[in-house]
Write a structure and sequence with these properties.
This protein has a single domain, classed as Orthogonal Bundle (UraD-like), CATH 1.10.3330. The model has no long low-confidence stretch (mean pLDDT 93). It is mainly α and 170 residues long.
Length: 170
Amino acid sequence: MARFGGVFEASPWIAREAWEGRPFGSVERLHAAMLWVVEHAPRSARLELIRAHPDLAGKAAIAGALTPESTREQAAAGLARLTPQQHERLTGLTVAYRERFGFPFVVCAREHTADSIIAAAASRLEADPAKEEQTALAEIAKIARLRLDDIVEESRDDGRSRRRRGGSGP
């Protein structure tokens, strides 16, 4: 849980349930097991998962209260360096989005720039609510996969460091 609990934002239950199916043999299989848990969870749990995501460039980001993963992801998309106009536009869109759908606008920020996130928020604001729920979950799946890849890469780097120091690898 310490290693994989943060793969899905504030939802360690996904890693806990998926872990029952181990061993996985690959990151792809672990990711698939985690997605299976999400897909087969009650709709209320899936909505909670979506709602666990912070608003992009929102109050939590400004206050420094994001998870380390969300902080890195938002910074990678340039959301920590928005112009006042970009911030105002994104904030307006995310407020309107939350009002329309009942959950935050979720996008795999690492696949975007600030401008493409703003464009996506504007475009998705017009989506059918059922379709948008599925789109948010698909974005969460991409976020989770990138986070899993980060964990694996960190483990490899840690193993290399230990071997260079004469310790045993993972």
